[in-house]
Each structure stands twice: as structure tokens, then as C-alpha cells.
Design brief:
about 0% helix, mainly beta, 7-stranded mixed beta sheet
Amino acid sequence: QVHLVESGGGVVQPGGSLRLSCAASGLTDFPFSSYAMNWYRQAPGREREFVAAITRVGDNAIYGDSVKGRFTISRDNTKDMMYLQMNSLKLEDTGVYYCNAVRASRGTWGQGTQVTVSS
């Protein structure tokens, strides 16, 4: 079963940038390239929110309206890694960011990484 670990979170000022990483392991049955990958986030007291998704081969991506033009999702199937480049960060981008792997309608979540945007 795939295991996901996020990293790269931290504290940043408004307008700053962060790059999140999601490392996949436990890929004994299916390769990383067989999983559609997503980023979600959850702010305190709010429901989990879709951030971005990328296709299995990385040739297409979609974004939530609140992050379009500022965030970029990418993946490296040779390294079993997914990334989220976050630019022009805003206070409202604060939250726990989760990576999610989906295959055959079954999803797996990482433990999350905290992003705090604060002046």
C-alpha cells in the first residue's frame, strides 16, 4: 500500500514562497505513475479544501480557484515525488497541506505539513 509523507511546510510572510514535497513509498504493487495525485489543505475550523491535481504522467493539472496563478503542482515519477510550488502566499493560505494519491477510486492520505503565512 502506498505511503505518503509531506514536507516543506513552515512559516512565511505574505508574498513569500514555499515548496512542498510529497514522497511516496511502499509501491510494491503499483508504480507511482499509476496514481493520480492531489494536494488538499485544511485551515483551522474549516473543511478540507481542494488545492490542485495532476494526472498520472504529469501532462495536465487543475487548480482550486483560490490558488490559480500562484501555485504550481508537479511530479517526478522517476523519484516517486510530487511537489507544490506556492508563490505570492496570502494569510488565507495558512493551513495543513495534505497530499493524496488515488488509484481505482481508492485514496490514500499523508499526515500533512503545516503552512503558516503570517506577518
